[in-house]
Amino acid sequence: MAKVWAIFEREMKSYFVAPIAYVVIALFIAIVGIFFYLILASFVQRCYEIDLYAQQWQQTAPAMNLHEWVTRPFFGNMATIALMILPLITMKLFAEEKKNGTIELLQTSPITTAQLVLGKYAAAVALYSTMLAITLIYMLFLFLYGKPEIAQIFSGYLGMWLIGSSYLVIGLLFSTFTDNQIIAAVSTIAVILMFWAIGWVTDFLSPALGKFIGQLSLIEHFEDFEKGVVDSKHIVFYLSFIFMGLFLSYASLESSRWRGSR
User: What pLDDT is attached to residue 97?
Assistant: First the structure.
């Protein structure tokens, strides 16, 4: 674990020495904040219209569901924003090491490939977790002016952490394939989109095949978390997805090491 921690520390320092961490965090928080404001403004406007209508007809205004109108669309939009932003975190993990020629030094050091993969992935997840934690500021506004359900917010953030960590493991894998960071980022976005769209084609397939393909969709497993439902089968899916991504990253690096030693 000490060597994994050493890689983790090295990677975290590299994020914050270069401007990439500040840029990525600022972009994510700003874009998520804009969407939060728009969603909340729409909710307030709708409440005002309903109250006005009720007063006009001397009726009791129906209660508006804060989760359905604010927190659920907030998490849905945040998952889409993360899709575009998180590849910026992972594109450098191994692509930069390959470009600078430092990957050979790491592979000939006492650090194993598994420790290298785990240390770098843990750093990317830690940075992403920091980004998610900062967005809790937006939730504070809801608690100040409303009564949101803590369980639904917890469910949304758990789903965001799991789906974001799945994005990161795809980015980690593609950074092992190339020394070009742009290619690593674009490939990651394309593959994440494929794992989104795969659930949209199930209606055009046979029921059995459609059900099987639908199980591979990243976004379909996220929908219950959006609704405030924590189901263990979705947690198992994301953890299995992450494990498979880590294993393929390990296999990719071992393969390149073997080819290099020939």
Answer: 81
